[in-house]
Write a structure and sequence with these properties.
Length: 203
């Protein structure tokens, strides 16, 4: 997966609370066996005028010209709650979203973001709302800078955010859970060799 070090991008405000994974990508949009094409279904219930149609809703934030190419979403509380469908993260990723900023996230969704190279930043609600107001005044100019090594997010002001060291390492090095485990491949092979000598009947 793509490494995350520093990212500078247009941020789109979507300050709705309790946005669940079915809103992020409705089940009717999950018709493929691969991840490709899921970005088209991102927020389909809001981005398009009618279910199953592709006429853009001009009032939805990601359809507005000033937020074209947005790679950061400013979100409300409990973003990504609901079912554990990883398709929600895949849709965000394919659309081009690199980071999400919210007061809180659904716990499974949060981990799925990390495992797919999207950085979920937790800031208090006042900070998120303040960033949204600043961004809205001039979206193309008032972009956000996220520095993962420093764990900082900078807009009109600078904010520090917390992230578990293991999760931070996954993003910095572009490692999913399997790749992280395979970093210990030599130790695993050594254990298996010793265990096979000690308990050959198991093998």
């Amino acid at each position: 997966m793509e490494k995350f070090m520093r990212h500078r991008g247009v941020a789109a405000p979507l300050l709705r609370d309790n946005v669940d994974t079915d809103a992020i990508i409705p089940s009717r949009e999950m018709k493929r066996v691969s991840r490709q094409g899921l970005g088209e279904g991102l927020f389909a219930g809001w981005r398009y005028t009618l279910p199953g149609d592709r006429d853009p809703n001009p009032s939805f934030v990601l359809n507005r010209e000033e937020y074209a190419g947005a790679s950061i979403l400013l979100c409300g509380d409990n973003f990504g709650c609901g079912s554990s469908r990883e398709h929600a993260v895949w849709a965000l990723q394919e659309f081009g979203i690199r980071a999400l900023v919210a007061p809180s996230f659904g716990s499974i969704f949060y981990r799925n973001c990390i495992r797919n190279g999207i950085l979920p930043v937790v800031l208090d609600r006042a900070a998120v709302e303040g960033l949204a107001l600043w961004v809205q005044s001039d979206p193309r100019h008032n972009v956000l800078l996220i520095d993962l090594p420093a764990q900082s997010l900078t807009g009109a002001d600078s904010y520090h955010f917390e992230l578990e060291p293991g999760l931070k390492q996954m993003l910095l090095e572009g490692l999913d859970a399997i790749s992280l485990t395979l970093q210990h491949e030599a130790d695993i092979a050594d254990f298996e060799a010793r265990d096979q000598r000690r308990r050959p009947w198991i093998y």
